[in-house]
Write a structure and sequence with these properties.
homododecamer; 69 residues; Dodecin subunit-like; elongated
């Protein structure tokens, strides 16, 4: 393993289905512009309520990816 | 958008099925007495174990709703 | 000073003017139903942005008031 | 064990005697209006000083109790 | 209820399926050597990404169990 | 409401006038390059002192904005 | 003083009497199997309520002890 | 820039006007006895309520200043 | 109530008897040199263990007192 | 000193040598694309272990730099 | 990569030389009884002072290692 | 061991060499006016960057020392 430098960005994914799906949506969005995604960490878990039911699950994650120094 | 004031209450929902279901149970309970639920935020995620398996998933959430000033 | 018990409730005030005004709005709302408000503490400070400018300042506070045991 | 929903409220008890007594005072106050108190958790421990001695011990606790959905 | 003493250990479960499954895997591992598991609490939620998709969900939990004094 | 993904960036605004003005300066800077700013959250509040008076109020905020997946 | 390595374990002691007694019970339990206990630190303070009174005081502590490398 | 050592002290300023004014009052008090004040950081923001209105805004800050080694 | 400025200092009191006594020892020490002590807040609760028993209870507190501007 | 706006980014540097070297590697990487780096703050300190020895020291830092509004 | 379960233990290493050396001492101690050490994370950094100089650097770390389910 | 009271002060040491050296500088500064320094704890680790390189390592520590009651 070489000496790497990683950059971390923060994204909030939303989904009508589940927390896991909200995370997958955020990662899918990130991989359109960034190669070499390595890991994520959950920062905050929320949701909004509409007509008295959960409307969207919202998960804020930090994603780490390698950058070339 | 007018100037609103929101009240926040804390509830713990429990479920034998999943974290999402525990949250839905807490919100269902809140909406019986409170109108205008707006959002929730996860505060703590726990569970109890019985006969060496997860018995109940427990999620403590803060729920925000509009109050009339 | 007697032995008192205090209850704490959490409110989010919003204002187009400033953080102080958002707090005053939350306290004004609380005093309509609760006597004996004693102190508040700022929990979170946020705002929403509309048309690229700050639209509403939002301050979540805890308010403490005496209850009669 | 059924699926329960619990509500959490925050109280500050004060006592001239000790931290344990301040907690008991807060619980005694809660049980006058709420059935089914289940547990508490200490949030903050403070005190005020008068004439250079501890005058009141103050403990802020969260109390959880079952609600009927 | 007698006076009990509980020990808490920290485990990270991983799963290709979901957060709940990662927790169940950690508990299954714990129960092979420890009797009397009582509860768990989620400490951290992460995941690793491989070929631009979530590869493993990772949940770090604290598990509490009774010890005989 | 569709499924959105939001990106969060962190900025520190400074102002000789007030905390609110420091936040507005940070947002003004962000909106030059980013469309669809949605909300901000205060992370840290500081200031520097020069000639024994407050010289600059400094507020670090997180700004959220929609990204197109 | 030599170079030492310490291990830290986490225990929850419970007592019908007081917080101090709950801590002593946890330490008594630890010393049955571990020599060279050095210090403890309080992590969390809780209690359960039964028949509307405090039934058990519960204190979670970290205990440090020397290990031989 | 030489190697400096800074000392940090904690003060709570109060004001009937605003948060900024409460901070200025604390700094004014500090500069009567301390030279070379450099920066401050907000630690806690509170207020007390009297006759159902905000009576005093209270801000606890850490102030850093250079000491001569 | 006038505009006051308060200073906060941090002390660790120790006692062979109890947590409350450790706090009283720290306050007794502070009042020898400082007038106008107003309140304290518990920061950390620890203890050291000697011969397999609690030897000293240690409580770190912040004490606030009025200063004359 | 003018009114500036700073942007903060998060990087993880890794090194086989030391924590300081891991930080220098992250800064070296940042300065290839960003002018006007001003300060950093350590967020997290970790490492991975290979063949029972520390293989890489890993430090996550926030770096602040001036942006032109 | 299979589904793994990791256990985390907490150790405090001490050294007269440096923080890095204190960590290496803790890991050396762990590897005498545990195979498959994977990573560590720094939890707390302290030191004790003797004769007005730093006597020992003390670093508390969490070490993760694979367990066989 | 007698009942002692300890005072804690906060200092930021800076050094062009390393984190350990920044801590030693802060302690050297403290020992010029204070006897009986006992321990320190790291609170924050930062640095400033000049000409695209680390210029000064900055470590904020809490130092504890015995006071005579």
């Amino acid at each position: 393993m070489q000496d790497h430098v990683y950059k971390l960005i923060e994204l909030t994914g939303t989904s009508t289905a589940s927390f896991e799906d909200a995370i997958e949506k955020a990662i899918k969005c990130a991989r359109n512009t960034i190669k070499n995604l390595c890991w994520f960490q959950v920062v905050e878990t929320r949701g909004n309520i509409n007509k008295r039911k959960v409307d969207h699950w919202q998960v804020t994650i930090t994603i780490g990816f390698t950058v070339e120094g």
